């Protein structure tokens, strides 16, 4: 208990001293390398959010490339399989071009629109619930226990009635 209080006091004092001496505006641009990065990070010029977005961008680009390669390879393999099972060669060649063109365009659209949908849906849900909660005079149900005197003498279990508050 005493140790945690001492640590808290030291952290408070250290934070105030570092903020006043090291992380103030007059030291802006004086540091480079690791110290410059730490200065920018503490002053919120460098954020972890930026690195998370960069990692997600690299991951999403990898997913796009894997899907595009899969679609292209699938465009050549699937018609060959179908032609081996009795489809005509003309239909197979047409299918190759159709999958190459429309498959890759479709995959590109999916990869372009998916991040927008992922960012858009939580905002829509949040706005919907704010709207629902802000509707005036919305009846809210609550439960009121019925009087024991009104209950049947043979009924040992109290009954509950549901009312809507007006």
Task: Walk me through this protein's architecture.
The protein has 166 residues and is mainly alpha-helical. The protein is built from four helices and two strands, in the order H-H-H-H-E-E. It has helices at 2-21, 33-42, 48-84, 89-134; strands at residues 141-145, 160-164. Helix 3 packs antiparallel against helix 4.
What's the short story on this structure?
By secondary structure, the protein is mainly alpha-helical. The protein has helices spanning 2-21, 33-42, 48-84, 89-134, and strands at residues 141-145, 160-164.
Compute the average pLDDT. Answer: 78
Largest sheet: 2 strands, antiparallel
> What sequence of helices (H) and strands (E) makes up the elements?
HHHHEE
Which value, in Å, is the CA radius of gyration?
Answer: 33 Å
Strands across the major sheet, in which order? 1-2
Query: What's the count of strands?
Result: 2
The total count of helices amounts to 4
Structural class: mainly alpha
Helix coverage percent: 55-70%
**Beta-strand residue fraction:** 5-15%
Distance between the termini: 52 Å
Question: What secondary-structure arrangement, pairings included, does this model have?
Answer:
Elements: H1 2-21, H2 33-42, H3 48-84, H4 89-134, E1 141-145, E2 160-164
Antiparallel strand pairs: 1-2
Question: What are the key terms here?
Answer:
disordered C terminus; mainly alpha; two-stranded antiparallel sheet; 166 residues
């Amino acid at each position: 208990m005493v140790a945690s209080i001492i640590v808290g006091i030291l952290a408070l004092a250290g934070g105030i001293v570092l903020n006043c001496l090291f992380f103030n505006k007059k030291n802006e641009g004086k540091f480079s390398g690791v110290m410059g990065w730490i200065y920018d990070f503490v002053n919120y010029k460098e954020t972890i959010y930026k690195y998370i977005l960069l990692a997600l961008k690299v991951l999403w680009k990898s997913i796009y490339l894997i899907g595009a390669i899969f679609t292209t390879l699938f465009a050549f393999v699937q018609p060959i399989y179908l032609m081996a099972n009795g489809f005509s060669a003309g239909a197979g060649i047409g299918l190759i071009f159709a999958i190459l063109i429309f498959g890759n365009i479709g995959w590109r659209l999916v990869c372009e629109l998916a991040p927008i949908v992922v960012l858009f849906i939580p905002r829509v849900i949040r706005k919907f619930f704010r709207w629902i909660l802000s509707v005036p005079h919305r009846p809210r149900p609550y439960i009121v226990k019925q009087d024991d005197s009104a209950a049947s003498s043979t009924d040992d279990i109290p009954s509950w009635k549901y009312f809507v508050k007006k």
